[in-house]
Design a protein that fits this description.
By secondary structure, this protein is mainly α. The chain contains 20 helices and 4 strands.
Length: 405
């Protein structure tokens, strides 16, 4: 194990001194969040949106109208004014999304409200004006001398209570509950993607060492098993480094842009389980990558079989549609039990389901652990022979012989 750690330390140092690795490590998150930041800047501030509504009130309903608008949720900025209609027309000539409403005796006697708007106005503004009917009708009823009981009955109107039918996958979670579920999933997903992508570099590492004739020198000091273990550990650490750098940019951005207290959502017991699933996924793919990578003469001549292996981490994308539409369905459960899709499908399902299927999670983790143990054994046999094979890529038939030997 000591030699394996030395190999891991060597891999880490070698990559951290590599300019292309360092550029990718920092430039990628800077570009992602830089473009998001520029989009938010050029997209404008949300506080500048909304329709400016100026009310010339001569009948004393401004406070009632303001309360009605506030409770309705429409995007109006209601202000009181005393300018005339002629002056309002002049002001509207150089304004956008602005309206002037004139409430006077004609409003009570004839039920009419003069509305002046700018040339560019919210398309829904005309429909939103119906909000004013309630306060105006209430004042009209008072003018007619109706009692408080009659007035309350008229003002109350009819309320329709709608209940929407939901299937078993439906969710009644609040936004706060959703964040508590999704943030740890995203955190674990970032770790999974980072360490799996770094694990794919094992492919290139083993192949490059064969091409440069370094493998023989290394194997004169350590065993093939120690070399393989060291590579897996080293690239796992590099993946964690990538995840940490990405999160250093992502966490402050999320707290600033969306006001999400990321730390309070991440520091929960569930996160440990989700990260463990991500690490198990890495160990499965890394053992496979290091074994197959040792069979390649060079990256440029990688055969079709090796190329298919590189695509295995992306298999969970096939299950995105079925899992989102029916996270408890048969296809989602099948994806949970297939080792190559299990980590991604599990994280996706746990983000959607209201109640976690603990029995399925336990079975899936057991399958993953057994699959990792088997894959490590197989990869070790392939790596032992393949790392010293030069001149051509190994065929599946040859690898099968090495496994059986």
């Amino acid at each position: 194990m000591r030699n394996a750690l030395k190999i891991a330390k060597w891999e880490i140092k070698r990559n951290l001194k590599n300019k292309s690795f360092l550029i990718g490590l920092f430039i990628t998150p800077i570009m992602i969040f830089g473009f998001m930041l520029l989009g938010s800047i050029f997209g404008g501030d949300d506080e500048d949106t909304g329709t400016n509504v100026y009310i010339h009130d001569e009948i004393g309903v401004f406070d009632t109208v303001k309360e009605t608008v506030a409770s309705s949720g429409v995007d109006w900025k209601v202000k009181q004014t005393d300018i005339s209609e002629k002056e309002a027309l002049k002001k509207l000539q150089d304004k956008e999304d602005t309206a002037y409403l004139f409430l006077n005796k004609d409003t009570l006697n004839q039920g009419t409200v003069n509305v002046l708007t700018s040339e560019e106005i919210n398309a829904y503004f005309t429909d939103q004006l119906q909000l004013l009917q309630g306060p105006i009708q209430q004042l009209q009823a008072k003018e007619l001398g109706l009692s408080d009981t009659q007035l309350a009955a008229i003002s109350k109107g009819v309320a329709f209570q709608e209940t929407q039918a939901k299937d078993e996958a439906g969710s009644d979670l609040t936004a706060e509950d959703m964040l508590q579920k999704i943030v740890p999933i995203i955190f674990a997903g970032i770790i999974l993607l980072s360490i799996v992508f770094s694990g794919m570099y094992i492919f290139q590492s083993a192949s490059q060492e064969k091409k440069d004739k370094i493998a023989e020198i290394i194997l004169s000091s350590v065993t093939p098993g120690e070399l393989m273990q060291g590579k897996i550990i080293g690239y796992f650490v590099l993946g964690i480094v990538q995840a940490v750098v990405f999160l250093i940019f992502a966490v402050p951005f999320a707290m600033w842009k969306w006001d999400i207290p990321v730390a309070s959502y991440v520091l929960v017991p569930e996160t440990a389980l989700l990260v463990a699933i991500a690490i198990l996924g890495y160990l499965l793919f890394a053992s496979m990558f290091v074994g197959i990578g040792a069979t390649m003469a060079d990256m440029g001549s990688a055969g079709q079989f090796q190329g298919m292996v590189m695509m295995l981490p992306f298999l969970p994308f096939i299950f995105i549609g079925p899992v989102l539409s029916d996270p408890s369905g048969l296809i989602a459960q099948i994806g949970t039990y297939i080792p190559f899709t299990s980590p991604g499908v599990l994280l996706l399902r746990l983000a959607v389901l209201d109640t976690w299927p603990w029995m399925q999670i336990v079975i899936s983790i057991v399958i993953l652990i057994v699959s990792i143990w088997i894959m490590m054994k197989l990869a070790g046999k392939i790596f032992k022979v393949g790392i010293l094979m030069y001149g051509k890529n190994a065929t599946p038939k040859e690898m099968w012989k090495w496994i059986r030997a």
